[in-house]
Design brief:
Blueprint (H helix, E strand, L loop, with lengths): L2 H19 L4 H14 L5 H14 L4 H14 L4 H14 L2 H14 L4 H14 L3 H14 L4 H13 L3 H11 L6 H11 L18 H15 L3
Amino acid sequence: MGRSGAEDIDRLRRDIDRALADKLDADRVLPLLARLARATSPGSEPWLYAHRHLAEMGVEHDPWRAALFARRVLQFHEEDDGAWAVLGLAQSLLGNYRYAARAYERALAIVPENPWYAHNLGHLYDVALNRPHDALPLLAQATEAQTGEADIAASYAHALARCGKLVLAKKILKRAIRHGATADQMALWRWLDAGAPTTGESGPDPQRPADSKRKAKRRRARERQSLGD
């Protein structure tokens, strides 16, 4: 790569860093990232940087494309937990729940202490894959690590109730929503208060699919923040 090319890449990288720091909208940052990806060699540090952010920033808009970007990162850096997590989130949004769970399992194996990976995997086990008993230790871990997160506590309460631990489920949820609750969390409370009746369904999902993109965006940022990225 010539000197002018390297300087252009450095300048583009600075522009992207500034745009991310200023929290510009994705539609203003994604074209810059695409330019950086095209201008750099596959597997190089700036190429990986561009593809990571293309996956992370684009997942709620185009999860299929975000999954492609994440897989490209993993071809060169198989231990990139963030790429595995974005792949898991993208596959969740696409409805490929077993694939999503495998991706989150890989992310959590790399960073076992990450509560957001534990929560997302536990929630998949409980609601999408009908494995509430497998979900419990993951959701307990996430709840203990993020005591102020009502979303996480609601997922834990849901799985507890499905495992027959209704009293503890109500205690966990009541404590989490004492300062206010979303409509989904109130629906979950009413279900618990009615004895968590089974009707062939798993019960009310504390994070309905209609909310998944909003929650996904917030949770993705927290996943990265918890790693100091």
